[in-house]
Amino acid sequence: MDTNSTNATSSLLGKSCQFSRVASIVFIFLHVLSSVLAITGNSLVLLAVYKSQRLRNVSNFFLCSLGFADFLVGAIMNPLYATFMALFMTSTRLPFFLFKISDFLTCQTLVASTISLCSVSIDRYIAIKWPLRYHLIMSDKKCGMVISCVWLFSIAMGIPQVILSDRRDLKLFGILSSAITAIVPLSVIVFCYVQIVAIAREQSRMLAGSTHGPSHQERIRIRAMKFEKAALTFVLIAGVFVLTFTPHLVLSFVHVFVREDATGCSFHKKYGIWFILLMFSSSFLNPIIYSARSREFRNAFKRLLKLHV
């Protein structure tokens, strides 16, 4: 293999950077915890939609796509990184193809998760912006097409991680994939948030200047409260997104231009695996944000948990 070749996982967990036993154990524990939370939370979301006829709608199908992507992060990626660290603690040499598979799955699952998050945000924006035309704009068929495109695109984004071997090419692709998994989704979420806030303010102005009867004002007030709740949800989503993805995004850009020190242990290698863990944590936070703010989901969760108690 070319000495200039590399890949993300092997470079982050390479022998040039040794982690203390305590740090390694903490790393493994946090991945296991994140895995359990992601699997549990997203399984509840998927089961709730499957079991409840009332929850089977286009909006929740997009949420299921997000939930399944986040479930895969918890079921595959967290255990995989924990296993890698455990094996490195014992100085076990792993086949190179395992790192390639890991890089493919890391990219594919994160792209599927973040682009699914985009589709959820756009769907909510359309529902609020054009409520009367929503079912025409976002039919079941169109929903299925969008979800299929999301997953095909995520697979396509993971393929370069397998076929590229040159260090420089992998670094540049890392920036591209980071931009797609962070900058684009965040931009979409912020756009949807700004638009929903504008709609909420317009509804408030209509309420203040309304000369209609109490029943009409009450309808406007309820709509305004609904939009404000949606806006707050987007604030939480954007906040979690920035918190969990920005460190890795910044590190990816810095990694292209900063060389390793004499020991081969750069800032990227020291902290990169922790920033990836931080990204993975969004997979158990997403179902909490989306589902906990929905009364229908909370009731569905209660029914599911009662069945298994």
From TrEMBL:
It is found in: Cell membrane. It holds the Pfam family 7tm_1. The lineage of its organism: Eukaryota, Metazoa, Cnidaria, Anthozoa, Hexacorallia. One of its GO terms (molecular function) is melanocortin receptor activity. Signal peptide: none annotated. Gene3D superfamilies: Rhodopsin 7-helix transmembrane proteins. One of its GO terms (cellular component) is plasma membrane. This is Melanocortin receptor 5-like. Residues 41-290 form the G-protein coupled receptors family 1 profile domain. It comes from the Eukaryota. It comes from Actinia tenebrosa. Keywords: Cell membrane, G-protein coupled receptor, Membrane, Receptor, Transducer, Transmembrane, Transmembrane helix. The keyword Methyltransferase does not apply. Belongs to the G-protein coupled receptor 1 family. The chain crosses the membrane at residues 22-49, 61-81, 101-122, 143-163, 175-200, 230-251, 271-292. It is a multi-pass membrane protein.
